[in-house]
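Appendix B. One record, verbatim.
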Amino acid sequence: MSGAARPVVNLRELFAAKEHDHGGRGTILAHRILARGAGSPGASFIDLAVLPPGTSIGRHRHGRDRETYVVLSGSGVMLRDGAEFRVTAGDVVVNEPYGEHGLSNDSAEDLALLVFEEEVPDDVPAG
């Protein structure tokens, strides 16, 4: 199959290590599945992230965008706007513009999630 695209690529080959993501603990793995082109509609990006046990995405804020976490597997502790709560597979957490958020894997298994970010138009009230 010289020059032909491989029919299957495993995520292990695509993930990049991100040390201390947003000031978090340890090294998570991430892969940007989609990045929107300038002026194109839709999500700014879609990332797949894996937080091994004991790692975290540190507390941080964004500007005028909404970031949504979709927990695919595992569990952890989510921080959103001063409140902490458990998240598990199937949970969807919407982090509103200017809100503070972070995620910590306090379990013994990997925590996998999709992260979607979308710009919020200026005429839509924040929060």
